[in-house]
Amino acid sequence: MDVILLERIAKLGQMGETVKVRDGFARNYLLPLGKALRANESNKKRFESERATLEARNLERKSEAQTVAEKLDGKAFVIVRSAGETGQLYGSVAARDIVETLSSEGFNVGRNQVELNTPIKAIGLHNVVLHLHAEVEITIVVNVARSADEAERQTKGESLTSADAIYGVDEDALKPEDFFDPEADGQDEDDA
Predict the structure, then answer these.
(1) Are residues 81 and 32 in the same domain?
(2) Model pLDDT, residue 27
(3) Which pLDDT band, with edges at 50, 70 and 90, does 175 fall under?
(4) Which residue range or ranges hold the Ribosomal protein L9 domain (predicted)?
(5) pLDDT, the chain, mean
(6) Domain of 20?
(7) Which of 77, 86, 94, 162 has a CA that sits 20 to 30 A from residue 70's CA?
(8) What percent of the chain has pLDDT over 90?
(9) CA atoms within 13 Å, Cβ hemisphere of 184
(10) Among 63, 84, 113, where does a domain finish?
(11) Does residue 138 share a domain with residue 102?
């Protein structure tokens, strides 16, 4: 189906372009959300008459997204979750959880604006991309930790999943002799 785009859509085209898309994509997404019109003569005339209004609205949305992006720039958000000794979460952190954290900090971001291909399943610092507008994209840091204290330590660069963080042991100081004693198994070096 041919449609006229009413706004820029990533990997599809710019505002005003006539593009060919699959029928289901047009019927179920583009047309109901007002992102496109069917490409026929009456809609082409309608688009041309409303073009200035659409461009002004798009510019306004973009400037709002730029403002939010400037406020979010360089921010890190802490999410506290239960996790095992190895740092594996007992649940996961999904886009919904990130949106809830952002809204508690005063940022209004939709779940569809969070680009998270797979849920976060381990503690640590994770970069998450937010698409605030078709032309505005920003990366935030999500700090997933077991407590606020651990989140602070992770921010400073301390690893919480290595042996020294879990057991209080310096991995580099360990030697094989520390784990294996040839006399402990009943054999002397002379018997071997």
Answers:
(1) no
(2) 95
(3) low
(4) 13-40
(5) 84
(6) 2-63
(7) 94
(8) 43
(9) 5
(10) 63
(11) yes
Q: How confident is the model at residue 129 (pLDDT cuts 50, 70, 90)?
A: very high
Closest CA relative to residue 142, chosen from 95, 184, 186: 95
- Residue tagged 């070096």 (tokens): 189
Nearby residues of 78 by Cβ (< 8 Å), 6 or more positions away: 101, 143, 145, 148, 151
Whether the full predicted model's pTM is greater than 0.90, yes or no, is no
Neighbouring C-alpha atoms within 13 Å toward the C-beta of 36 = 27
Residue 191 lies in a domain: no
Residues whose CB falls within 8 Å of the CB of residue 68, separated by 6 or more in sequence, listed in order: 107, 108, 109, 132
Give the helix/strand (H/E) hosting 125. strand 124-133
**Cα(143)–Cα(76) distance, integer angstroms:** 7
Q: Are residues 155 and 96 in the same domain?
A: yes
Say whether both 86 and 44 belong to one domain.
Answer: no
105 and 131 share one domain: yes
Give the list of residues 6+ apart from residue 15 with CB closer than 8 angstroms, or none.
5, 6, 7, 8, 54, 55, 58
* Alpha-carbon gap, residue 115 to 109, rounded angstroms: 12
Does the structure show a pLDDT above 90 at 23?
yes
Residue among 66, 81, 70 nearest 142 (CA) = 81
